[in-house]
Amino acid sequence: MKCFVITKKQIMLGISVICALTVAVICSVSAFAGNERLLPIYCVETEKKQIAISFDAAWGNDDTQQLIDILAEYKVPATFFVVGAWVDKYPESVKALSDAGHQIQNHSNTHPHMPQLSKTQMMDEINSCNKKIEDITGKCPTLLRAPYGDYDNVLIKTVSEMNMNTIQWDVDSLDWKETATAGSICDRVTSKVKPGSIVLFHNDAENTPEALPEILKCLKDEGYEFVFISDLILKDNYEIDHTGMQCPAETQSGDQ
After folding, report:
1. E strand or H helix at 67
2. Given a cut of 90, is residue 40 above it in pLDDT?
3. How many angstroms separate the CA atoms of 60 and 63, rounded?
4. Domain region containing 29
5. What is the pLDDT of residue 250?
6. pTM here?
7. DSSP 3-state assignment of 236?
8. Which DSSP string do the residues of 131-164 spell out, in sequence order?
């Protein structure tokens, strides 16, 4: 029978290898956790046949009153994400939107690519726009839609720390495209909407006022209820899946 003698050198080498592997595993886990991709809310899981329509207002203003009139005709509430610089140019339109019963939310102050900013600059963009909106409407925004739909983990964490939610969309009307017609806008939106959808329009797209009445009529005929995004989203006990859908948090095993 052979006897194996383990030397002190071999023991020390083995300990070193184990330690190195342990550190590598810990670092890998930490790196993975630190790089977890955070997502804004694109849509909401719901059994109710509810959807929210939204408009981004950053540049022009020719169609805003017409949109207000159409929404009033169909008794549809909408969420308008406005840029602070747009508020400076068109304060009367911000007031008109608010007076008509629509919600005014934050689309940044100067329409930058937010991930290119520092956290302090992000907060300045959000706070400046919030103040301008609140000064006119008396209500401070609770939602942010990042310009260009451009976000990163820092932005989402910053917005959350400011007790706000970052909002995207799951149905893009593509009304801003030069090739978009009223028919193509209508077909695209009505074919893609589902319960819990957030639909994106723009307040100054050429053919949106023509497309909007048919969209609203069609979706109402299908039994959809229109609500504000702030009423559609869950306020607590939720998680956001890999698609950006906000879902009720799963009950842990053993919970009653």
Report:
1. helix 64-73
2. yes
3. 8
4. 8-37
5. 82
6. 0.85
7. coil
8. HHHHHHHS----EE--GGG---HHHHHHHHHTT-
Q: What is the pLDDT of residue 23?
A: 36
Q: Which residues are paired to 105 by β-bridges?
A: 81
Average pLDDT over residues 146-168: 98
pLDDT, tens only, 177-219? 999 999 999 999 999 999 999 999 999 999 999 999 999 999 9
Kindly list the catalytic residues.
56, 202
Please give the tally of structural domains in the chain.
Answer: 2
- Note whether 138 and 187 are same-domain residues: yes
Domain presence at residue 48: yes
Instruction: Tell me which residue of 109, 111, 144 sits closest to 125, measured CA to CA.
Output: 109
Q: Cα–Cα distance between 114 and 80 in angstroms, integer?
A: 19
Answer yes or no: do 78 and 195 share one domain.
Answer: yes
Least Cα distance to 238 among 106, 48, 54, 41 occurs for 41
Q: Considering the domain boundaries, does residue 74 fall inside one?
A: yes
Question: Is 3 among the domain residues?
Answer: no
